Amino acid sequence: xxxxxxxxxxxxxxxxxxxxxxxxxxxxxxxxxxxxxxxxxxxxxxxxxxxxxxxxxxxxxxxxxxxxxxxxxxxxxxxxxxxxxxxxxxxxxxxxxxxxxxxxxxxxxxxxxxxxxxxxxxxxxxxxxxxxxxxxxxxxxxxxxxxxxxxxxxxxxxxxxxxxxxxxxxxxxxxxxxxxxxxxxxxxxxxxxxxxxxxxxxxxxxxxxxxxxxxxxxxxxxxxxxxxxxxxxxxxxxxxxxxxxxxxxxxxxxxxxxxxxxxxxxxxxxxxxxxxxxxxxxxxxxxxxxxxxxxxxxxxxxxxxxx
Length: 307
Ligand SMILES: [Zn+2]
Known about the structure:
Layout: H1 2-5, H2 8-15, H3 29-33, E1 37-38, E2 45-48, E3 51-54, E4 61-64, E5 67-70, E6 76-77, E7 83-84, H4 87-98, E8 109-114, H5 130-147, E9 151-154, H6 164-173, E10 178-185, E11 195-200, H7 226-244, E12 248-254, H8 257-262, E13 266-273, H9 277-283, H10 286-304
């Protein structure tokens, strides 16, 4: 994991600081204490030996090494104009991704959950139904993981309907170490496109698609995996964007029942929009499915090897 966030330009910027960098003058004391230094002439850009963080006042989204992440709370400027993030944003996103501390997540068996099935079609594109794309991609992910030496169990291998509770129970019973739910997206806006990786929302935070002022729920048992989840999601999202050149719609938080019920570390992957005519065709191609499958399998391998 250390290597993921290591970036030569960031390291050079950090150590060549001197007259080019303000020494944390515009970072909150918490961020400065973690080693973030503001980059002169680039408001909201903070350099760290492990990478670059870009914050925008009033926004819950931030960029970490150019990839989009949702924070539990919006960034604020204090009375001195310093960029402040909440303790929860540090604990659940910034610290796990910049600390370089290894995360212990030995993975032998991965539970793969192709979303929807049977009468539950999921989103509908012009050519494909989401349930079909989810199953095809899930099978490709299973192959890629098996090639890398992992055991795989699927919640469904055919066009069968399962409730969310059944999926969660299967994940629990399957003696898995990691849970991956595979979905495809749709939106009323036909131009929406790109990939997203969801993990269960930390207790006290609003989910990424909710307004921040909406009720911040208590933790669920799956929140004990928050640190593993954010690292897994960062690896999956980065790999998917790099391998497919799809638009990066970010690592996001949601209290999806299927994630909360699985009682395993895991993520829900939205692998593209069936409502976007061009992306729908890409999602239906074996080539794109193979690229996404390899992106996910490489992420699991990296997480397992504790780097
Ligand atoms: Zn879905």
